[in-house]
Amino acid sequence: MDAMWDNAVSRRSLLAGAATGAAAVALGTGGASAATADGDDLERLYGSLAGEVADDYTPVSWRAFAPVRTAAGTLLAGSPTPQQRQEAQQALATAADRLVMIRGLRHLIAEYQNRNHADYTRRSWHDLPRTLAAARAVLGTDDATREDVVQAKNTLQEAATGLTPTAAHAFGDIRNDSFWHDTVGNPIYSQGGGVFRFGDTYYWYGVRYTGAEQYYNSPTRTYDSTFVAITCYSSRDLTSWTFEKNIATVSTPLWVPSEKETNDSTFSQMKNLADTSWLGRLGVVHNPNTGKYVLLIQMGNALDTDGNNGAVLFLQGDHPADDFAYANIQPQIVGVPTQSTKDQTVFIDDDGSGYLVFSGGTGRVYSYVSKIAEADSLSIEPAVQIGYVAKGREGNAMFKYDGHYYVATSNLHGWNSSQAYVIKSKTSDIQGEYTAEYVLPGTEKDYSHVTQTGFFITVKGQKQDAVIFAGDRWADFAWNGLGYNQWMPLSDTGDGLAFESLSHWELNAVTGAWRTGRDNNYLLNPEFAADRVAVTTLTGWTTRIDTDVSASNFVANTSPGSDSTRFALKLGASSPFSGSLSQEIAVPAGRYRLSAKARADGGLDYARIRITSRAKEHLLDLNQPTSEWHTLSFDSLLLPAGPVTVAIEVRSTTGSRWITLDALALTRR
């Protein structure tokens, strides 16, 4: 069979014993015996083809296919002999394999014909009208071949990739610590995925879980992670996202042949994605040989309870926002002693090559990079180990900067927040030698803005490249603050890359420039959630105990916080206590507002926030008794540019006094 086969028919050729060439390599060569264990091969093949429609295929290929499908349906309505079934099955599979899909080409034409030449430079626009005309000609050719269709799709996408806007677009807002919404106001549900640029458009793929929906409605505790759908959003500026569709759901069929079984697994018994025990950690790669978009995702099999239930699942679509269909699974990757992968992400190199970055199963102590097969992107080549950490790491995510590859990981905290650890390639070889791991500077101050490493986005700007750390707030949904997706920029300090923990920043996706937003909260770990558990030393804050008054520890985080957040800061003790928590930050010159939510017994010697700059000191009194949370603020702080120390100071010479604080903020007016 031609290597440029359509995903809609790959599974059928396998069922009919007609899989050869690229399809056989990807899906197995078991013939009719590879079909379902509890149903007739012809019935299953016919059922899988029942939803295909003429508009998705060239007229010539459809006219050859349609009567064969009708004949198979008529045969099944009667009492055919085994030989008749086999002959009908072979004929139907052959006809299906010869279908030439044009659904994706039609979609791309509709997408790119809406571009306005006035918005782009003359040189970059030059190729798009010509490639659009050529693509329309192929679409209008009744007997167009697969090669014709794939070439038209590729050249059209390449022309769109090269479009250069005539003027720098406006900066767009990225606001963390909040739930994000799409362009019509609905919540964005996208966990454990990635952002990939096809043509001139970014596509964000991720998973929608029931727990995300529940947490959005009531962010007061953790919830579950039951799979709902794989979502797709699109944007050309990385800040305004349009919901395209659910590209796969629990009802998406699976067609796994028995040849894919390993260690007494039951993959071939799975009917659809409802039979998975876990789906997550995904990415999409475009394959120029087939013209397809291939999604790779970690999968667990709910029907298999002996522990050998993991595999990488491949789904495939004809355009970036298509209905994706089953294409393959790969339970074992050569070079990895354990089955399947852990915490994988997909990385696309500058030349378009795709790689899978992941940990091994047992202990997650090894990090690997595997190339995704160039031929059709439906298998994973042998793995190369690039890292080892005895304690184990998860949340593997790769980016490239200044000719080197970086892999960031997190602690094994069960989907909870973590500082980020990085290894860096010593050469330009993605599978070559890497450095020992080190902590990505800035992430230690608030556990990566209270996230776990998710993935990275690299913006190839007209003026500079920008690398975005896309952190996930999982924590079993989630209760580590509002929002699931927290995106922060990396900065080049001259001595290396550093993490910028910003609650509000602005990005220009055309130039690659970014800047701190006016609503940014300059305090780090202001809701005391970064530590994830009850502690007496808080990340991002320095504790000082006034031992001349008392050596008693007086610092803890307590749950819940204000507005049912996970934690708040509790200061006090049953014995006398005195001291402070402080952090030093850098701010631009301007007028600021300091605010905090407080709940206090009253009667402390003092409780206050002291802000010290090079110009003067400012004090905010907190020692006001109240049984309910209330907001205290200093609304007009004039601060010069440079370092500022923020200290929370408390003292009680009698003891048995407490004050609880939450939601601290230092923002520009």
From TrEMBL:
Residues 1-34 form the signal peptide. It comes from the Bacteria. Gene3D superfamilies: Designed single chain three-helix bundle, Galactose-binding domain-like, Glycosyl hydrolase domain, family 43. PROSITE patterns: TAT. This is FIVAR domain-containing protein. Keywords: Signal. It comes from Streptomyces glycanivorans.
